């Protein structure tokens, strides 16, 4: 018999089973009896058989199915870890974005709240005439007439001091040659370095008036038409007027001794018509006074009042001209004595 080098794996497996797995005394397969092996080149064939048998036994000890399951398990774990890591990184990025949004929102809220608190704690007082008094950051003092408002910063910039006003106010500007004080009143602008003056800028009056008490004031307008005056320099005692509809800017000497009566309640009447007297009283005391007969408007009054009550002034007027005063709420009517 020739060599058995061409024996199939199946033959070797059968041989291994017969040698190691069959019970003792059981007959071996015919083709693989010890006699046949001894007659077929002997030792070399036995060596090969031993190697094949050893391989078979090792394969039998190693559970390939279980090993494959372990490999799948490890792959799945790594995938889960990788997926978890990706999810974690995405969550971390989202958290970072949300945290940034919260920080920005908190900063804006904090700044906004701080500004509100600053405005709320600004020193605003009301005097016995019902007028608001404000002292700005630079020491400038502002007295506001009723139905008036001013917008101003908590701290002024490095180059200018700017505010805006609606209504009527009296300014006592703290001097600062390096930082001009600028007031915006509608389309008009008032610029000073240090002075005192009044501004009347009620929208319903269709004009802005500036009357200078001390110092110098530059009064200008936004309209830059070459055909009209764009700015004026006002000295003490002068009044500048800007008409909104016509865009005209002009100045003259102030002939109204009572232009600050709304603030001081100091009233001077020198042969002043009762019509003008009533106009000044209505403005200074925020009341409504009328005459029952238009002819009463031509009556003249010579008087000087300093922080007197309205009732006292009306009593002087009525006793001077033989009139009586009828009051209904805040409305006063001057009539002839019956």
Characterization of this structure:
With 338 residues, this protein is of the alpha+beta class. It has three domains: 53 residues, no CATH class; 129 residues, Jelly Rolls (Sandwich), CATH 2.60.120; 76 residues, Phage tail protein beta-alpha-beta fold (3-Layer(bab) Sandwich), CATH 3.55.50.30. The strands form three sheets. Strands 1, 2, 3, 4, 5, 6, 7, 8, 9, 10, 11, 12 and 13 form a 13-stranded mixed sheet that branches. A hairpin with a 2-residue loop joins strand 17 and strand 18. Helix 1 crosses helix 3. The N terminus is likely disordered.
Care to give the gist of this entry?
The chain has 338 residues and is of the alpha+beta class.
Indicate the radius of gyration in whole angstroms.
53 Å
Domain count, please report it.
Answer: 3
Look up the CATH topology of the largest domain: Jelly Rolls
What summary fits the major beta sheet? 13 strands, mixed
The CATH architecture of the largest domain can be given as Sandwich
C-alpha geometry: elongated
Oligomeric description of these chains: single chain
Order of helices and strands: HHHHEEEEEEEEEEEEEHEHEEHEE
How many β-strand runs?
A: 18
So how many helices? 7
Helix content: 25-40%
Give the termini separation: 166 Å
Point out poorly predicted stretches.
1-5, 22-30, 112-121
Provide mean pLDDT, rounded: 77
Q: What is the CATH class name of the largest domain?
A: Mainly Beta
Structural class: alpha+beta
- How much of the sequence lies in strands comes to 25-35%
């Amino acid at each position: 018999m020739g060599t058995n080098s061409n024996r199939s794996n199946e033959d070797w497996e059968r041989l291994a089973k017969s040698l190691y797995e069959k019970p003792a005394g059981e007959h071996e397969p015919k083709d693989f009896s010890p006699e046949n092996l001894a007659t077929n080149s002997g030792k070399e064939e036995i060596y090969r058989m031993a190697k094949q048998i050893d391989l078979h036994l090792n394969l039998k000890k190693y559970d390939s199915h279980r090993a494959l399951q372990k490999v799948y398990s490890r792959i799945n774990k790594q995938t889960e870890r990788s997926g978890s890591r990706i999810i974690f990184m995405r969550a971390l990025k989202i958290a970072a974005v949300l945290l940034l949004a919260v920080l920005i929102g908190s900063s804006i809220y904090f700044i906004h709240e701080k500004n509100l608190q600053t405005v709320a704690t600004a020193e605003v007082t009301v005097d016995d005439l019902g007028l608001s008094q404000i002292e700005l950051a630079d020491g400038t003092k502002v007295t506001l007439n009723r139905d008036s408002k001013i917008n101003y910063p908590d701290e002024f910039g490095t180059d200018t001091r700017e505010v805006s006003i609606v209504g009527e106010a009296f300014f006592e500007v703290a001097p600062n040659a390096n930082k001009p004080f600028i007031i915006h009143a509608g389309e008009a602008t008032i610029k000073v370095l240090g002075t005192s003056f009044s501004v009347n800028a009620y929208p319903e009056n269709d004009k802005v008036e500036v009357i200078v008490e001390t110092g110098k004031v530059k009064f200008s307008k936004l309209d830059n038409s070459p055909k009209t005056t764009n700015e004026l320099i006002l000295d003490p005692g002068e009044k500048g007027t800007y008409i909104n509809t016509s865009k005209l800017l002009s100045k003259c000497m102030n002939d109204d001794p009572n232009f600050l009566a709304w603030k001081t309640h100091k009233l001077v009447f020198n042969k002043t018509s009762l019509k003008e007297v009533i106009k000044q009283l209505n403005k200074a005391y925020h009341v409504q006074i009328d005459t029952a007969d238009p002819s009463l408007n031509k009556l003249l009054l010579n008087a000087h009042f300093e922080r007197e009550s309205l009732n006292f002034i009306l009593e002087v007027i009525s006793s001077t001209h033989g009139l009586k005063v009828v009051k209904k709420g805040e409305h006063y009517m001057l009539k002839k004595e019956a």
